[in-house]
Amino acid sequence: MPVTVGVLALQGAFFEHVQLLKKASEQESLAGWEFIEVRTPQELAKCDGLVLPGGESTTMSLVAARSNLLEPLRDFVKVHRKPVWGTCAGLILLAESANKTKKGGQELIGGLDVRVNRNHFGRQTESFQAPLELPFLGAGAAPFPTVFIRAPIVERILPHHKGIQTEEISLEETVVAPSRQAKGPAAEAATADHVEVLATLSRPASVIATQGRDLSPDKELGDIVAVQQGNVFGTSFHPELTGDARIHAWWLRQVQAAVLRRKKLGQ
Ligand SMILES: NC(=O)CC[C@H](N)C(=O)O
């Protein structure tokens, strides 16, 4: 079963992702998988799954718009519901809403019903590394060496399928992603109406967020740094900048499951 996984290669750490995807596929003994850099709608159309790397989300969305990729990317995530994973800037692009965006706005792709707070931990010089428990990697998994560089966090879980969040529009420097309708049975199967919190920074994640609940004031929960909603996965940190391929391997298994689901449904 040939499977093609793309990494959006407009800007940022795309090369590192491709390398770790290859390493993970070897670890998982996945034969016949192809990993490609995506710069055009034609390349995107070949993909069964897509990684949006870290970098600078403002630049990435500008280049995506100029490359006529924004609409195909939105369709990939929200209409075809193929698996996507955004790291850092990629997570920002996958959010339905983002704070502290550049004046004049910034285009988002959307797909995760969350609002992110950009540059949550401060500037480049305030970058840090932290060993983080990631329960989704399995019971007893060793802490993951997470790298945070001008990283966003998920500061709010938004109500599902609200489309444009009108309450957010009035907030200065907050942007929202345009809404889209999923189509077809595979799309339905991959649609999840809740955002699952997979990791928080200050303590091991054991929390499933409920819709519409503002989690930011409750500091006890810690900062949300990994979330999943259906086929959309996002991390605040950069696994591609470590040699650790465990998250890539975990995500490739998600892609494999999604491809099998689509096949079963004849799509
Ligand atoms: N390392 C990163 O990807 C940083 C993201 C960056 N702060 C942005 O807003 O795009």
CA-atom Rg in angstroms = 17 Å
How are the strands of the biggest sheet laid out side by side?
2-1-3-4-13-12-11
* Ligand inventory: glutamine
Global outline: globular
CATH class: Alpha Beta
What distance separates the N and C termini? 14 Å
Total strand count, please? 13
Largest sheet: 7 strands, mixed
CATH superfamily: Class I glutamine amidotransferase (GATase) domain
Order of helices and strands: EHEHEHHEHEEEEEHEHEEEH
Quote the CATH topology.
Answer: Rossmann fold
SSE class: alpha/beta
What do the pLDDT scores average to? 85
Number of domains: 1
Helix content class: 25-40%
Spans of at least 5 consecutive residues whose pLDDT stays below 50 are: 162-172, 203-219
Residue fraction in strands: 15-25%
Judging by the overall fold, what is the CATH architecture?
3-Layer(aba) Sandwich
Number of helices: 8
